[in-house]
């Protein structure tokens, strides 16, 4: 399951265009592609701008991540960049240590959460993230009925006959939407597994059309899930409120 | 962004809100939605002898979506199916002065008319 690209050291260089990107060391101006320290003067370096969260942690772009390796690498890098170790250093080094620490924490949070990880990967490769919420077209009739029931429940008093019937219908709706959400999740996981096997067998610097098609499908699913989350929450809070 | 007076008028006094019996053979029902905002619209037409006698709508969505569907029900009444099918979303945009971000609401109304007609035709094949 785990996907560390290189056990002896972190991955180097940018991932997408296959060209090596270097940056001059801010201190000694040595041109290098080192991830964390200048290979010439050993001074701490900014993360390479063209690299990404996966690369910072030494991972390839697989969607399954070895959680133990993630934790371990997070702690290793946290120690490496920790501002406490730079208190006696130059202001430049202190600034870099602070910035790297902040970016590292952000990267760790994203990579740790499987859904955030997929969103991030899509944003990274496609240039834009999935929409927060997009209703699945085949559900519009259900959605309309749910909206009608939510409206009815809002306007009906607890003692009125019929309230229980509406509540029951909404509970059924809730189950149906959750089942749809689960189905989307299964699909998402399947695509992620396929993505990983495409990624492992990739021997070109660029992503294949098939990989990009997978990203598009994952993007759609995430948007649908965003919408379903919202409607599920609406039903739940309406049932809670109108007891 | 502010709504035009016509949108506000339709929003405050929506025409033809309600529903018709969807099991009636003379009634065509169209339920459409906008994936981006989650707005949903139901438009129903009662058709007799190829002419739209009555129309009803219900929309869960923003003011522009409500106004677009309200206007659509006004326009289709008395029209033949072919005439109603010709109604373009751009006419709704012009009539209501919809801003660019709300054009999709008019598209929804046009789609709803077409969906209702298709449902009627399917029922009466």
Distance between the termini of chain A: 46 Å
Largest sheet data of chain A = 2 strands, antiparallel
Enumerate the strands of the largest sheet of chain A in spatial order, edge to edge or round the barrel: 1-2
Categorize the overall geometry of chain A.
elongated
* Head-to-tail CA distance between termini of chain B: 45 Å
How many domains in all of chain A? 2
Q: Any idea how many domains of chain B? A: 1
Provide the residue-averaged pLDDT of chain A: 86
Specify the helix fraction band of chain B.
40-55%
Report the total helices of chain A. Answer: 7
SSE order of chain A: EEHHHHHHH
Q: Helix/strand/pairing class of chain B, anyone?
A: alpha+beta
CATH topology of chain B: Sufe protein. Chain: A
Largest sheet of chain B: 3 strands, antiparallel
Question: What is the helix tally of chain B?
Answer: 5
The poorly predicted ranges of chain B are none
Top-tier CATH class of chain B: Alpha Beta
Please explain how this structure is put together.
The complex is a heterodimer of chains A (243) and B (125). Chain A has 243 residues and is mainly α. Chain A folds into 2 domains: 23-112, DnaJ domain (Helix Hairpins), CATH 1.10.287; 137-241. Chain A has 7 helices and 2 strands; from the N terminus they run E-E-H-H-H-H-H-H-H. Chain A has helices spanning 53-56, 67-81, 91-112, 114-126, 140-155, 163-200, 209-241; strands spanning 23-24, 31-32. A two-stranded antiparallel sheet of chain A has the order 1-2. In chain A, helix 3 (91-112) crosses helix 4 (114-126) and helix 5 (140-155) runs parallel beside helix 7 (209-241). The longest helix of chain A has 38 residues, at 163-200. The two termini of chain A are 46 Å apart. Chain B has 125 residues and is of the alpha+beta class. Chain B has one domain: Sufe protein. Chain: A. Chain B has helices at residues 5-12, 63-76, 81-85, 89-96, 103-123, and strands at residues 27-33, 40-48, 51-60. Chain B has a 3-stranded antiparallel beta sheet. In chain B, strand 2 (40-48) and strand 3 (51-60) form a beta hairpin. In chain B, helix 1 crosses helix 2 (63-76), helix 2 (63-76) packs across helix 5 (103-123) and helix 4 packs across helix 5. Chain A binds chain B through residues 131, 133-137, 140-141, 143-144, 147-148, 151, 223, 227, 230-231, and chain B through 31-36, 38, 40-42, 58, 60.
